[in-house]
Known about the structure:
It is a single chain. This protein has about 280 residues and is an alpha+beta fold. The chain is built from five helices and eleven strands. Strands 1, 2, 3, 5, 8, 10 and 11 form a seven-stranded antiparallel β-sheet that branches. About 40% of the residues are buried. The mean pLDDT is about 95. The structure holds 2-oxoglutaric acid. 2-oxoglutaric acid binds near residues 130, 147, 160 and 231. 2-oxoglutaric acid binds near residues 113, 130, 147, 218 and 220.
Amino acid sequence: xxxxxxLTMTRQALRSRYEEDGFCVVPELFPADVVExxxxxxxxxxxxxxxxxxxxxxxxxxxxxxxxxxxxxxxxHVASRGVRELVTxxxxxxxxxxxTGASKVWVWWxxxxxxxxxxKPGTSVGWHQDKQYWxxxxxxxxxxxxxxxxxxxxxxxxxxxxxxxSHRWGLKNIGDFFHQDIEAQKAAVPIPPGETWDEVxxxxxxxxxSVHHMLTYHGSGPNLxxxxxRSFAIHLRTERSxxxxxxxxxxxxxGRDLIKYxxxxxxxxLVYGKDE
Length: 276
Ligand SMILES: O=C(O)CCC(=O)C(=O)O
Protein backbone atom coordinates (compact mmCIF):
# COMPACT_ATOMS: atom_id res chain seq x y z
CA UNK A 1 0.00 0.00 0.00
CA UNK A 2 1.34 3.49 -0.87
CA UNK A 3 2.14 6.05 1.81
CA UNK A 4 -0.75 8.21 0.49
CA UNK A 5 -3.22 5.29 0.76
CA UNK A 6 -2.08 4.63 4.34
CA LEU A 7 -2.53 8.31 5.23
CA THR A 8 -6.03 8.31 3.71
CA MET A 9 -6.98 5.24 5.77
CA THR A 10 -5.59 6.80 8.93
CA ARG A 11 -7.47 10.01 8.22
CA GLN A 12 -10.72 8.08 7.79
CA ALA A 13 -10.19 6.48 11.21
CA LEU A 14 -9.40 9.89 12.74
CA ARG A 15 -12.52 11.38 11.18
CA SER A 16 -14.65 8.62 12.72
CA ARG A 17 -13.04 9.29 16.13
CA TYR A 18 -13.65 13.06 15.76
CA GLU A 19 -17.29 12.51 14.77
CA GLU A 20 -18.04 9.87 17.42
CA ASP A 21 -16.02 11.20 20.37
CA GLY A 22 -15.96 14.96 19.67
CA PHE A 23 -12.15 14.97 19.58
CA CYS A 24 -9.23 13.03 18.19
CA VAL A 25 -5.50 12.86 18.85
CA VAL A 26 -2.92 13.10 16.05
CA PRO A 27 0.45 12.01 17.48
CA GLU A 28 2.52 13.44 14.63
CA LEU A 29 1.70 16.44 12.44
CA PHE A 30 4.29 19.26 12.35
CA PRO A 31 7.95 18.89 11.24
CA ALA A 32 10.48 19.18 14.08
CA ASP A 33 12.17 22.31 12.66
CA VAL A 34 8.82 24.12 12.36
CA VAL A 35 8.04 23.22 15.97
CA GLU A 36 11.45 24.43 17.14
CA UNK A 37 11.02 27.83 15.42
CA UNK A 38 7.54 28.14 16.95
CA UNK A 39 8.99 27.41 20.42
CA UNK A 40 11.61 30.16 19.88
CA UNK A 41 8.78 32.47 18.76
CA UNK A 42 6.74 31.58 21.84
CA UNK A 43 9.65 32.48 24.13
CA UNK A 44 10.25 35.76 22.27
CA UNK A 45 6.59 36.75 22.62
CA UNK A 46 6.71 35.94 26.34
CA UNK A 47 9.66 38.36 26.57
CA UNK A 48 7.72 41.03 24.62
CA UNK A 49 9.80 40.71 21.42
CA UNK A 50 7.83 40.75 18.15
CA UNK A 51 9.82 40.01 14.97
CA UNK A 52 6.84 40.89 12.72
CA UNK A 53 6.63 44.35 14.25
CA UNK A 54 3.02 43.66 15.34
CA UNK A 55 2.15 42.94 18.98
CA UNK A 56 -0.34 40.21 19.93
CA UNK A 57 -3.89 41.20 20.96
CA UNK A 58 -4.58 42.54 24.45
CA UNK A 59 -4.10 39.40 26.62
CA UNK A 60 -4.71 38.08 30.14
CA UNK A 61 -0.91 37.60 30.56
CA UNK A 62 1.66 40.26 29.63
CA UNK A 63 5.47 40.16 29.60
CA UNK A 64 6.66 40.70 33.16
CA UNK A 65 3.56 39.08 34.73
CA UNK A 66 3.83 36.21 37.25
CA UNK A 67 5.77 33.38 35.50
CA UNK A 68 4.12 30.80 37.79
CA UNK A 69 0.56 31.17 36.49
CA UNK A 70 -0.95 30.03 33.17
CA UNK A 71 0.39 32.32 30.44
CA UNK A 72 -2.37 32.98 27.89
CA UNK A 73 -1.51 35.31 25.01
CA UNK A 74 -4.00 36.08 22.23
CA UNK A 75 -3.12 36.02 18.51
CA UNK A 76 0.60 35.14 18.81
CA HIS A 77 0.79 34.35 15.07
CA VAL A 78 0.73 38.07 14.20
CA ALA A 79 3.69 38.74 16.50
CA SER A 80 6.17 36.01 15.55
CA ARG A 81 7.27 34.63 12.19
CA GLY A 82 8.06 31.25 13.76
CA VAL A 83 4.59 30.94 15.31
CA ARG A 84 2.99 32.09 12.05
CA GLU A 85 4.87 29.41 10.09
CA LEU A 86 3.36 26.71 12.34
CA VAL A 87 -0.16 28.18 12.41
CA THR A 88 -0.29 28.44 8.60
CA UNK A 89 1.49 25.13 7.92
CA UNK A 90 -0.31 23.23 5.10
CA UNK A 91 -0.49 20.04 7.21
CA UNK A 92 -2.91 21.79 9.56
CA UNK A 93 -5.38 22.91 6.88
CA UNK A 94 -5.27 19.46 5.23
CA UNK A 95 -5.95 17.72 8.55
CA UNK A 96 -9.00 19.90 9.27
CA UNK A 97 -10.31 19.43 5.72
CA UNK A 98 -9.88 15.65 6.08
CA UNK A 99 -11.71 15.61 9.44
CA THR A 100 -14.64 17.77 8.32
CA GLY A 101 -14.87 17.31 4.55
CA ALA A 102 -14.63 21.11 4.24
CA SER A 103 -13.48 22.81 1.04
CA LYS A 104 -12.17 25.88 2.89
CA VAL A 105 -10.58 26.27 6.32
CA TRP A 106 -9.55 29.50 8.06
CA VAL A 107 -7.70 30.17 11.30
CA TRP A 108 -9.83 32.79 13.11
CA TRP A 109 -8.19 32.98 16.54
CA UNK A 110 -5.07 31.60 18.24
CA UNK A 111 -4.10 31.35 21.91
CA UNK A 112 -0.60 30.76 23.20
CA UNK A 113 -0.88 28.61 26.35
CA UNK A 114 2.22 28.10 28.49
CA UNK A 115 1.58 26.12 31.66
CA UNK A 116 4.54 26.38 34.02
CA UNK A 117 5.69 23.34 36.02
CA UNK A 118 5.32 23.16 39.77
CA UNK A 119 1.55 22.67 40.07
CA LYS A 120 0.97 26.18 41.45
CA PRO A 121 -2.55 27.67 41.78
CA GLY A 122 -3.60 29.57 38.66
CA THR A 123 -2.45 26.95 36.19
CA SER A 124 -5.59 24.83 35.68
CA VAL A 125 -8.20 25.32 32.97
CA GLY A 126 -11.78 24.80 34.16
CA TRP A 127 -14.33 22.61 32.36
CA HIS A 128 -16.02 24.50 29.54
CA GLN A 129 -17.41 24.22 26.02
CA ASP A 130 -15.64 26.62 23.63
CA LYS A 131 -18.90 27.69 21.98
CA GLN A 132 -20.09 29.24 25.27
CA TYR A 133 -17.53 32.00 24.56
CA TRP A 134 -18.19 32.23 20.82
CA UNK A 135 -21.68 33.76 20.53
CA UNK A 136 -20.45 35.98 17.69
CA UNK A 137 -20.81 32.95 15.39
CA UNK A 138 -24.21 31.48 14.44
CA UNK A 139 -25.19 28.43 16.54
CA UNK A 140 -24.84 26.10 13.53
CA UNK A 141 -21.36 27.30 12.50
CA UNK A 142 -18.66 24.68 12.01
CA UNK A 143 -15.93 25.74 14.46
CA UNK A 144 -13.21 23.56 15.91
CA UNK A 145 -9.86 23.74 17.69
CA UNK A 146 -6.50 22.22 16.93
CA UNK A 147 -4.51 22.11 20.17
CA UNK A 148 -0.84 21.79 19.21
CA UNK A 149 1.69 20.28 21.62
CA UNK A 150 5.06 22.05 21.53
CA UNK A 151 6.36 19.93 24.41
CA UNK A 152 5.70 16.28 25.21
CA UNK A 153 2.33 16.27 26.96
CA UNK A 154 2.08 13.49 29.54
CA UNK A 155 -0.39 12.59 32.28
CA UNK A 156 1.84 14.60 34.68
CA UNK A 157 2.05 17.81 32.65
CA UNK A 158 -1.62 18.82 32.93
CA UNK A 159 -2.95 17.45 29.63
CA UNK A 160 -6.26 18.61 28.19
CA UNK A 161 -9.00 16.25 29.41
CA UNK A 162 -11.99 15.76 27.11
CA UNK A 163 -15.45 14.39 27.95
CA UNK A 164 -16.00 11.82 25.25
CA UNK A 165 -19.31 12.28 23.40
CA SER A 166 -20.17 15.60 25.11
CA HIS A 167 -20.29 17.37 21.71
CA ARG A 168 -23.75 15.76 21.38
CA TRP A 169 -25.05 17.28 24.62
CA GLY A 170 -25.91 20.68 23.08
CA LEU A 171 -24.69 24.08 24.21
CA LYS A 172 -25.09 24.24 27.99
CA ASN A 173 -23.50 27.65 28.68
CA ILE A 174 -22.26 26.15 31.96
CA GLY A 175 -18.50 26.11 32.44
CA ASP A 176 -15.63 28.44 33.24
CA PHE A 177 -12.19 28.44 31.56
CA PHE A 178 -10.66 30.22 34.58
CA HIS A 179 -12.13 27.94 37.30
CA GLN A 180 -9.23 26.46 39.29
CA ASP A 181 -10.75 23.49 41.18
CA ILE A 182 -11.60 21.22 38.27
CA GLU A 183 -12.50 18.31 40.58
CA ALA A 184 -15.09 20.37 42.46
CA GLN A 185 -16.35 21.92 39.22
CA LYS A 186 -17.31 18.48 37.85
CA ALA A 187 -20.53 18.54 39.88
CA ALA A 188 -21.73 21.59 37.91
CA VAL A 189 -21.32 20.01 34.47
CA PRO A 190 -24.85 18.98 33.38
CA ILE A 191 -24.75 15.37 32.16
CA PRO A 192 -27.89 14.65 30.09
CA PRO A 193 -30.01 11.60 31.06
CA GLY A 194 -28.56 8.39 29.62
CA GLU A 195 -25.07 9.92 29.20
CA THR A 196 -22.01 9.26 31.36
CA TRP A 197 -18.86 11.11 32.45
CA ASP A 198 -16.22 9.58 30.16
CA GLU A 199 -13.03 11.58 30.70
CA VAL A 200 -10.00 11.09 28.44
CA UNK A 201 -6.59 12.76 28.90
CA UNK A 202 -5.00 13.75 25.57
CA UNK A 203 -1.42 12.47 25.79
CA UNK A 204 0.44 14.02 22.85
CA UNK A 205 4.11 13.99 21.81
CA UNK A 206 5.78 17.30 20.84
CA UNK A 207 4.74 18.13 17.26
CA UNK A 208 1.39 16.32 17.52
CA UNK A 209 -2.02 17.77 18.26
CA SER A 210 -5.59 17.09 19.24
CA VAL A 211 -8.65 18.43 17.44
CA HIS A 212 -11.90 19.09 19.26
CA HIS A 213 -15.45 20.14 18.38
CA MET A 214 -16.78 23.49 19.68
CA LEU A 215 -19.23 21.72 22.04
CA THR A 216 -16.87 19.12 23.54
CA TYR A 217 -16.39 19.73 27.27
CA HIS A 218 -12.72 19.97 28.28
CA GLY A 219 -10.42 21.30 30.97
CA SER A 220 -6.97 20.59 32.42
CA GLY A 221 -5.26 20.30 35.80
CA PRO A 222 -1.91 21.64 37.02
CA ASN A 223 1.43 20.75 35.46
CA LEU A 224 3.09 18.37 37.93
CA UNK A 225 6.05 17.56 35.66
CA UNK A 226 9.35 19.41 35.82
CA UNK A 227 9.08 21.07 32.39
CA UNK A 228 6.67 23.68 30.99
CA UNK A 229 3.64 22.46 29.02
CA ARG A 230 3.74 24.47 25.79
CA SER A 231 0.87 24.72 23.32
CA PHE A 232 -1.16 26.75 20.89
CA ALA A 233 -4.94 26.46 20.71
CA ILE A 234 -5.69 27.24 17.07
CA HIS A 235 -9.37 28.00 16.49
CA LEU A 236 -10.58 27.21 12.99
CA ARG A 237 -13.71 27.57 10.92
CA THR A 238 -14.92 26.10 7.65
CA GLU A 239 -17.11 27.52 4.86
CA ARG A 240 -20.05 26.26 6.95
CA SER A 241 -19.68 29.11 9.45
CA UNK A 242 -21.04 32.67 9.63
CA UNK A 243 -21.41 35.54 12.06
CA UNK A 244 -24.47 35.40 14.33
CA UNK A 245 -27.50 37.50 13.38
CA UNK A 246 -27.34 39.43 16.67
CA UNK A 247 -23.59 40.26 16.80
CA UNK A 248 -24.20 43.99 17.34
CA UNK A 249 -26.23 43.20 20.50
CA UNK A 250 -23.46 41.11 22.10
CA UNK A 251 -21.15 42.26 24.88
CA UNK A 252 -17.36 41.85 24.82
CA UNK A 253 -17.72 38.97 27.34
CA UNK A 254 -20.07 37.21 24.91
CA GLY A 255 -17.31 37.36 22.31
CA ARG A 256 -18.53 40.27 20.14
CA ASP A 257 -14.99 41.13 19.02
CA LEU A 258 -13.94 37.61 18.07
CA ILE A 259 -15.09 38.07 14.48
CA LYS A 260 -13.45 41.45 13.90
CA TYR A 261 -10.67 39.99 11.75
CA UNK A 262 -12.68 37.60 9.54
CA UNK A 263 -11.75 39.57 6.39
CA UNK A 264 -8.12 40.20 7.34
CA UNK A 265 -5.81 37.42 6.05
CA UNK A 266 -2.95 38.56 8.31
CA UNK A 267 -5.04 37.74 11.41
CA UNK A 268 -7.40 35.17 9.85
CA UNK A 269 -5.41 33.27 7.18
CA LEU A 270 -7.06 30.80 4.83
CA VAL A 271 -5.19 27.54 5.52
CA TYR A 272 -7.01 25.21 3.15
CA GLY A 273 -8.76 25.81 -0.20
CA LYS A 274 -8.64 28.76 -2.52
CA ASP A 275 -9.94 32.32 -2.39
CA GLU A 276 -12.51 33.08 -5.12
O1 LIG B 1 -4.77 24.22 27.31
C1 LIG B 1 -5.69 23.79 27.97
O2 LIG B 1 -5.52 23.15 28.99
C2 LIG B 1 -7.12 24.02 27.52
C3 LIG B 1 -7.19 24.75 26.22
C4 LIG B 1 -8.57 25.01 25.73
O3 LIG B 1 -9.47 25.28 26.46
C5 LIG B 1 -8.82 24.91 24.29
O4 LIG B 1 -7.89 24.58 23.53
O5 LIG B 1 -9.96 25.15 23.85
